[in-house]
Design a protein that fits this description.
The complex is a heterodimer of chains A (203) and B (238).
Chain A lengths: L2 H9 L4 E2 H11 L8 H13 L3 E3 L10 E4 L1 H12 L11 H11 L5 H27 L6 H32 L15 H10 L4
Antiparallel strand pairs in A: 1-3, 2-3
Helix pairs in contact in A: 2-3, 5-6, 6-7
Chain B lengths: L1 E12 L6 E12 L3 E5 L6 H8 L7 E6 L2 E2 L5 H11 E5 L10 H11 L4 H14 L15 H13 L5 E5 L7 H16 L3 E6 L2 H4 L4 E6 L2 E5 L15
Parallel strand pairs in B: 3-8, 3-9, 6-7, 7-8
Antiparallel strand pairs in B: 1-2, 1-4, 4-5, 9-10
Classes of the chains: A mainly alpha (203), B alpha/beta (238).
Amino acid sequence: MSVRHALLALLSEGPKYGLQLREEFEARTGEVWPLNVGQVYTTLQRLERDGLVASDGTDSEGPHRGFRITAAGQRELDGWLRTPPDLSAPPRDELVMKILVALRVPGINVHEVIQVHRRYLVELMQEWTRIKETEASADQADISLALVVDAELFRLDAVVRWLDAADGRIKRAAGPVAEPPSTPAPQETGKVMKLRIGTGVRR
Amino acid sequence: MSVLDMHHVSRVYGQGVAEVHALDDISLSVDAGAMVAVMGPSGSGKSTLLTIAGSLEEPTSGEVVVAGQELSRLSRNARARLRRRSIGFVFQDFNLLPGLTAAENVALPLELDGTSARKARQAGLNALESLGLADRASHFPDQLSGGERQRVAIARAIVGEHQLVLADEPSGALDTANGEAVMRLIHAACKRGMAAVVVTHDAQLASWADRVMFLRDGRVTDQTAEPAGPESMLGQVP
């Protein structure tokens, strides 16, 4: 989460005080990303140093010092919004590593290991769904919170789906009938080769 | 109060070497007001569990009690009556009768059970209205969107004095928004005192339930713990 760009976004609406920025940041992110006031002022000082925000010129420090976005800050914000985050390299996922390791450890039932993680993820999803349900019955729906909850549910759901797929794949691989591939394996791309090397997977 | 009780239920298909244990010693209890989700891969026994709970199929062994009545002690006709009066079904493909309007589809189980056409229609309209479908009452299924058809199917499942909703992948054919709407409606029906069992392979659907049971090869392998409060999640995102 880029606090720097979130503060620029809030200042693009008009000049604000530091304390106000912190409150609005938390409200806009559905209060799931707590931010301490020290982080806000440190970030504002750096933004001012880089010419992306300007303070109101008073000498006062702390909660009564106002900030506004500069033209350079607006350009920085526009560029950031349109730049996709780098998702090209697969993250070193701890859960993936655990399942890969579980496959190799003697005496470990990998299906049981998968189920422990699946249950934990579904329990987390139940809690997020309960937030969604409570929020929907509130007088004023909080769109930011709803979007954050959806993002978490989809993220956790993707992990459960991967576990389900892994569970099935491992079960089939251990089955009595192992079907040989009917077509030659496709040429591996550079990225997949690197991944294979990175995770230590051998064929 | 328990609406559905399954005690040591097993279902075996075939004999000898062809014997398949679709369900193996399943016990499950669902109270009024509770939603239980049953998760598992294809072939894990989810749908068999639902058809046995709904008295559409008999177990090989074990006992099933719905709304206080033990199914094995009931005649075929009494079981059919119990189904019409107490159980609502929701399927992935809606199962609405194409020649009947939305209101007629919803009223049908009541009429079959002997309720007068006028009263059944009124109950059907009330159920549709509670799901925001009053203006679709005179439409035929092919004039409704997928989401609307499933809401009609839910209205049919909760109409009258139904106590138990049994849903098989109820949002499987719907997009995310409509799928969520379907789960909200089933959840709301539970809040009003119905019991529900939803079988699904979809974790997002299952996460609406108070309790999630995991089925594998016909056996319950695991279930979720008692839920924590929603406040425990706030402030947890990195």
